[in-house]
Design brief:
The chain is of the alpha+beta class and 214 residues long. It is built from 9 helices and 4 strands; from the N terminus they run E-H-E-H-E-E-H-H-H-H-H-H-H. The protein folds into 2 domains: 80 residues, Glutaredoxin; 115 residues, Glutathione S-transferase Yfyf (Class Pi), Chain A, domain 2 (Up-down Bundle), CATH 1.20.1050. It is 51% helix and 7% strand. Strands 2-1-3-4 form a 4-stranded mixed sheet, covered by helices on one side. The relative contact order is 0.15. The mean pLDDT is 94.
């Protein structure tokens, strides 16, 4: 398998975690989102991913896009170890957590959005960062409340089993910390993040350990 990735991309980070959790071999192919105006915009990459986003996973199934769809595919094709609970209700809860991060929080702090704020709307760097911190803080507070009222408290987002929710949470926390987003009021998130980062699969996926990291 080939993973088209960028070391700082939260979406690519999610998929790297899932691949490492399942112990799968893959080749990382960096797609620099800034160099030369963005390598994701080049025709060669657009042929693989028409939207020009990362990640994309190339496998026997073709080129798969969208991080959550890729992780669900991995779960179906490589079910061991599982990243979803056995119970249908629990799976829905885990998916809700993952989607809260990937669909509600991440799009508002995506590179395309941040660039639009500064390049098209002429916001200053400080104003852009204020936008970022506002929406990420609000979204992570919602995740914190979901974790606080979880039916399966434990070491990770859902009990003591690493799930797709953890694959989504850790990259979002890393992104928030990079922009100095305050997380002190989120003890559940900080505890789970620390527990995840103690695992080898999460460590291998960290941005600083990727081949395109500076």
């Amino acid at each position: 398998m080939k993973l088209y990735t960028y070391y700082r991309s939260s979406a690519a980070y999610r998929v790297r975690i899932a691949l490492h959790c399942k112990g799968l071999d893959f080749e990382s192919i960096p797609v620099h989102l800034l160099r030369g105006g963005g390598e994701q915009k080049q025709p060669a990459y657009r042929d693989k991913h028409p939207l020009g986003l990362v990640p994309a996973l190339e496998s026997d199934a073709g080129v798969l896009t969208q991080s959550l769809a890729i992780m669900e595919w991995l779960e179906e094709v490589y079910p061991k170890p599982p990243l979803l609970p056995a119970d249908a209700g629990a799976r829905a809860q885990v998916r809700a957590l993952a989607n809260t991060i990937a669909c509600d929080i991440h799009p508002l702090n995506n590179l395309r959005v941040l660039n639009y704020l500064t390049q098209d709307l002429a916001l200053s760097e400080a104003q852009k960062n204020q936008w970022y911190r506002h929406w990420v803080h609000a979204g992570l507070l919602a995740v914190e409340r979901l974790l606080e009222h979880s039916a399966a408290p434990g070491r990770y987002c859902w009990g003591d089993q690493v799930t797709l929710a953890d694959c989504c949470l850790v990259p979002q926390v890393a992104n928030a910390q990079r922009f100095d987003c305050p997380l002190d009021a989120m003890p559940h998130i900080l505890r789970i993040n620390a527990n995840c980062l103690a695992l080898e699969a999460f460590q291998k996926a960290e941005p600083a350990r990727q081949p395109d990291a500076p």
